C-alpha cells in the first residue's frame, strides 16, 4: 500500500532560484537553461518547493512537494500546467489529493498511488486544483519517445506496453484522449521515495538520478504490462483462453518445426493482430520469444542429463546450424553449450 507521507527535501541538492510569481510554466524555460534548479515559491501556491533536473537530451524530472499543509482559509484557484509537446509525461502522486482538469472537461482525481500518463504533440493546458489543508507531493517524469529507444534504455517500440502504444495511436484520432490513468505498485513507490530522498550532490547525484530514472521507467512499463495482461485476460472468452493454452502446448512439443503465426491464428480463430496482442499480454512475451525460451529450457535439460552431441541438440531444437544454437546459448548463459555440458558429464552414468 502506498503511504500518504512525505519527508523533508534536501535544500542543498540543486541551485536555488527565487520564484516571485505564480507562473507555474516558468519551470519549462528554466529546465532548458539549467541542468538542475530548485524553485522557492513565495505566493499563495499549493507547493513550497520544486526541484527540476534535465537528466539527458530526452528526459526531464520535476519533483514538487510541500511540508506545510495549506491554511483552511485558503481557497486556491485552478493552477495552470503546460504539457510539453512531443513528450510522454508520467505523473506519480505520492502525497495528498488533487484534481486534474483536462482540456476536454474531464476531471481526474489524483490520490497517493495514482499514475497519470499523457502524450501530446502540441502543448496543452491542464489545470490542477488542490483542496485546502492538504499536503502535496508529486513526481513528474517527461521523456521523448525516442528516449525510450536510446541508451541507456534501448527499448524498441515493439517491446513497449500496449497502453503506451495506444497513447501514440490516439494522437491521430483525438489528441485530447491521449492519456491513461492507473494505480502504481509498491516497487514504484519505493523507487520514487529513493528519488525524492536522495542524499547525493554534484556528479554523484546526477549518476544516481540517471540510474533511478532508468529503474523507474522499467518498473512503470512493467506495471503497465501487468495491467494490460489483467485487462486482456478479463475480456477473453473461455474458448479463447483454452486456445491460448493449447497453442502454448503445441509450441512446446514442436520446437524443431514450430507453427507460424499465421497457422496459430487460423487454429485459434483469432486474427493475427489480436493473437499477437493477447499472447504477449497473457504470457509476457511474443510467440518468437516464447519459442526461444522453450528451446533454451529444453537445451539445458538435454545438456544436464545426456551426452547428446551439440549438433544433434541444435537440430532437435530447430536451429538450422549448430553455430546459431551455440551463439544463442552463449549470449544467454555466458558460456558455450559444450562447456555447460562438461560440468554435468561426471554425474552421468557410465554407458560402457
TrEMBL record:
<keyword id="KW-0238">DNA-binding</keyword>
<dbReference type="InterPro" id="IPR018062">
    <property type="entry name" value="HTH_AraC-typ_CS"/>
</dbReference>
<dbReference type="GO" id="GO:0003700">
    <property type="term" value="F:DNA-binding transcription factor activity"/>
</dbReference>
<dbReference type="InterPro" id="IPR009057">
    <property type="entry name" value="Homeodomain-like_sf"/>
</dbReference>
<dbReference type="GO" id="GO:0043565">
    <property type="term" value="F:sequence-specific DNA binding"/>
</dbReference>
<feature type="region of interest" description="Disordered">
    <location>
        <begin position="1"/>
        <end position="21"/>
    </location>
</feature>
<protein>
    <submittedName>
        <fullName>Regulatory protein PchR</fullName>
    </submittedName>
</protein>
<dbReference type="InterPro" id="IPR053142">
    <property type="entry name" value="PchR_regulatory_protein"/>
</dbReference>
<dbReference type="InterPro" id="IPR018060">
    <property type="entry name" value="HTH_AraC"/>
</dbReference>
<dbReference type="Pfam" id="PF12833">
    <property type="entry name" value="HTH_18"/>
</dbReference>
<keyword id="KW-0804">Transcription</keyword>
<keyword id="KW-0805">Transcription regulation</keyword>
<feature type="domain" description="HTH araC/xylS-type">
    <location>
        <begin position="245"/>
        <end position="343"/>
    </location>
</feature>
<dbReference type="InterPro" id="IPR020449">
    <property type="entry name" value="Tscrpt_reg_AraC-type_HTH"/>
</dbReference>
Amino acid at each position: 500500500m502506498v503511504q500518504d507521507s512525505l519527508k523533508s527535501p534536501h535544500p542543498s541538492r540543486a541551485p536555488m532560484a527565487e520564484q516571485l510569481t505564480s507562473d507555474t510554466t516558468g519551470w519549462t524555460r528554466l529546465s532548458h537553461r539549467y541542468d538542475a534548479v530548485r524553485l522557492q515559491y513565495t505566493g499563495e501556491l499549493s507547493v513550497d518547493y520544486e526541484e527540476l533536473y534535465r537528466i539527458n537530451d530526452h528526459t526531464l524530472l520535476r519533483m514538487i512537494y510541500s511540508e506545510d499543509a495549506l491554511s483552511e482559509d485558503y481557497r486556491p484557484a485552478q493552477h495552470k500546467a503546460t504539457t510539453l509537446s512531443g513528450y510522454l509525461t508520467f505523473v506519480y502522486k505520492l502525497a495528498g489529493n488533487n484534481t486534474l482538469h483536462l482540456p476536454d472537461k474531464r476531471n481526474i482525481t489524483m490520490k497517493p498511488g495514482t499514475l497519470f500518463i499523457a502524450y501530446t504533440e502540441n502543448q496543452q493546458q491542464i489545470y490542477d486544483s488542490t483542496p485546502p489543508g492538504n499536503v502535496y507531493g508529486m513526481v513528474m517524469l517527461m521523456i521523448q519517445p525516442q528516449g525510450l529507444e536510446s541508451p541507456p534504455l534501448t527499448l524498441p517500440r515493439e517491446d513497449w506496453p500496449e497502453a503506451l502504444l495506444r497513447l501514440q495511436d490516439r494522437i491521430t484520432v483525438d489528441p485530447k484522449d491521449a492519456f491513461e490513468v492507473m494505480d502504481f505498485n509498491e516497487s514504484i513507490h519505493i523507487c520514487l521515495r529513493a528519488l525524492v530522498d536522495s542524499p547525493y550532490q554534484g556528479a554523484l547525484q546526477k549518476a544516481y538520478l540517471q540510474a533511478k530514472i532508468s529503474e523507474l521507467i522499467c518498473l512503470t512499463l512493467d506495471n503497465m504490462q501487468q495491467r494490460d495482461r489483467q485487462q486482456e485476460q478479463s475480456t477473453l472468452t473461455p474458448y479463447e483462453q483454452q486456445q491460448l493454452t493449447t497453442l502454448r502446448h503445441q509450441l512446446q512439443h514442436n520446437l524443431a518445426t514450430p507453427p507460424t503465426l499465421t497457422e496459430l491464428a487460423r487454429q485459434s480463430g483469432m486474427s493475427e493482430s489480436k493473437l499477437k496482442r493477447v499472447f504477449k499480454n497473457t504470457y509476457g512475451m511474443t510467440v518468437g520469444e516464447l519459442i526461444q525460451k522453450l528451446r533454451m529450457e529444453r537445451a539445458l535439460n538435454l545438456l544436464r542429463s545426456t551426452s547428446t552431441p551439440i549438433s544433434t541438440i541444435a537440430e532437435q531444437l530447430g536451429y538450422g546450424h549448430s553455430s546459431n544454437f551455440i551463439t544463442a546459448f552463449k549470449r544467454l548463459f555466458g558460456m558455450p553449450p559444450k562447456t555447460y555440458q562438461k560440468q554435468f558429464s561426471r554425474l552421468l552414468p557410465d554407458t560402457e
